[in-house]
Amino acid sequence: MTIKGGEQREKALFKIDTKTGDVWIGRQSQTRYIQGESEGVVQVRTWYEFEQEMKIPKEIWNNIKN
């Protein structure tokens, strides 16, 4: 079995706490490997934990919500 190099893609994921306005950012990474000539493609996905990235001040968040 031969495996050719990986092609990697990343995407950002966001979660917003609708009560406080806290924004959490995470990442998902996907790597594709091609096996041999007819053996197909193998995909490996990795999710990274969400980390609090920013806190929106309450005055601004209340204006956004309304």
Account of the protein in words:
The chain has 66 residues and is mainly β. The protein has one domain. The chain has 1 helix and 3 strands; from the N terminus they run βββα. Strand 2 and strand 3 form a beta hairpin. The chain is rod-shaped. It starts with a strand and ends with a helix. The mean pLDDT is 78.
Keywords:
66 residues; mainly beta; 3-stranded antiparallel sheet; 3 strands; 12% helix; rod-shaped
Secondary structure layout plus pairing:
Blueprint lengths: L2 E14 L5 E14 L5 E15 L2 H8 L1
Antiparallel strand pairs: 1-2, 2-3
Low-confidence stretches: none
Number of helical regions = 1
Oligomeric state of this protein: single chain
Q: What is the structural class? A: mainly beta
Order of helices and strands: EEEH
The backbone outline, from C-alpha atoms, is rod-shaped
- Tell me how many strands there are: 3
Q: What's the gyration radius in Å?
A: 19 Å
End-to-end distance: 58 Å
Domains (count)? 1
Give the biggest beta sheet: 3 strands, antiparallel
Helical content (DSSP H or I, runs of 4+)? 10-25%
Mean pLDDT: 78
Bin the strand percentage.
over 45%
Sheet with most strands: strand arrangement: 1-2-3
Task: Give a quick rundown of the structure.
The chain has one helix and three strands; from the N terminus they run βββα. By secondary structure, the chain is mainly beta.
